[in-house]
Amino acid sequence: MRLKCEQLQPIGAFKLRGAYTAVARLGDRRQTGLVTASSGNHGFALAWSARAFGVRAVVVMPESAARRKVEAVREVGGEVVFAGRTRSAEQGDRAEAMAAAEGLNFVPPFDHPDVIAGQATCGLEILEDAPNVEIILVPTGGGGLLAGVAAAVSALKPSVRLIGVEPEGAAKLSAALAHGKPVALERTESVADGLLTQAIGNLTWQVIRPVVREAVRVTEVEIGLAVRHLYQQAQVVVEPSGAVTTAALLAGRVSGEGSVVAVATGGNVDPALFDRLVHESA
Predict the structure, then answer these.
(1) Residue 153: is its pLDDT beyond 70?
(2) Is the N or the C terminus of the chain less surrounded, counting Cβ atoms within 10 Å?
(3) Mind listing the pLDDT tens digit for each residue in 93-108?
(4) Are 250 and 222 in contact (CB under 8 A)?
C-alpha cells in the first residue's frame, strides 16, 4: 500500500485544492468576499485562500465543530458564524442567506465544478507518482474528492478501481449506489467528523456514478485502530476522516489484489481525541 499524504498540504488537508481553485476562478468577483458552510477543513481552506487573495471569508460551522478547526479558521483571518448544534443543512442555508444578504460569493464544500476540478489534481498526482496503481481508496463525505479523482483517473487510466470509503454511521455513498441517486440520511454520526455530510452531492454524483461501483464501510473501532496504526507504524498524524481508507485495508474490507493507493485526506485532529485514539484503540 502507498499512502497519498494530503495531511502535508499547507492547511493540513486536501480541501485546499478545491477551495483555492474555486476562489482563483472567481476573478474580480471575489472582491465582495466569500462565504461557505463547513465542519472544518473546507472552511479552513477557504479562509486560507481568502487571505492569499486579500478578501473577506465567512465560515458557517456547527456548534459541535472541533475546536482546533474553528481556531484554524480564525487564525488565518476567517470569520466564524455558528448555526445548528450538529452537521446539518442548517449551515448551508445560513451561508446562502448571508451570501444573498451581503453580496458574498458562496463556495460550496464539494458540489461545485471548480471545487471538483481542484480536487482532481489529487488524482493526477497519484497517477504521476504511482503509474502502476490498480486500486485507489478515497474517503467519502459529499463526494467532492471522489468525483475529482474519478474524473482524472477515468480519463487517463480507466482500468483503475476506485473505491469510496465511509463510516458505517454516515454511509451516504452506499445509499446512493443502492438507490441509483443521492439519498439524504436522517442522521450521520462518527468520529470521522469530516465525512458527516448527509448525502452525496447532486453534481458530484453525476461524476461519480459512471466510474465508481464500490463503497466500503468501516466501524468506529476500525477507524481508531487505523489512526493508531498510521501513527505507530508510519509516524504520521492523520485525522479519523483521513484514516478510513487505511481502516478498510486493515479490516480486510477490500477484496482483490493489485497495487493500492490509500488517500489520507487530512491531519487536523483535536489533540485530546488523537491521544485517546492512539492510546485506547485496541
Answers:
(1) yes
(2) C
(3) 999 999 999 999 999 9
(4) yes
- Residue reference for cell 499512502: 3
Whole-angstrom distance, CA of residue 142 vs CA of residue 182: 10
Residue 75, CA distances (Å) to 31, 40, 71, 125, 262 in order: 21, 13, 6, 29, 30
Tell me the C-alpha distance between 107 and 22, whole Å: 7
Q: Annotate 206-234 with b (16+ C-beta within 10 A) or e (fewer).
A: ebbbebbebbbbbebebbbbbbbbbbeee
- Among the three residues 106, 122, 153, which one is the final residue of a domain in this structure? 106
Q: Are residues 56 and 136 in the same domain?
A: no
Residues 119 and 101 in one domain: no
Instruction: Give the pLDDT band (50/70/90) at residue 218.
Output: very high
Q: Is residue 281 pLDDT above 60, yes or no?
A: no
160 and 265 belong to one structural domain: yes
Note whether 134 and 229 are same-domain residues.
yes
Report the CATH number at residue 60.
3.40.50.1100
Nearest of 122, 104, 125, 93 to residue 23 by alpha carbon = 104
Residues 135 and 58 in one domain: no
Check whether residue 196 and residue 173 sit in a common domain: yes
Average pLDDT, the chain: 95
pLDDT, residue 87, reads 79
Q: Looking at the structure, tell me whether residues 147 and 192 fall in a common domain.
A: yes
Residue 140: band (very low, low, confident or very high) from pLDDT cuts 50, 70, 90:
very high
Nearest-angstrom CA–CA distance, 201 and 142: 6
β-strand partners of 35: 58, 106
How many folded domains does the chain comprise? Answer: 2
pLDDT digits over 253-271, tens only?
998 889 999 999 999 998 9
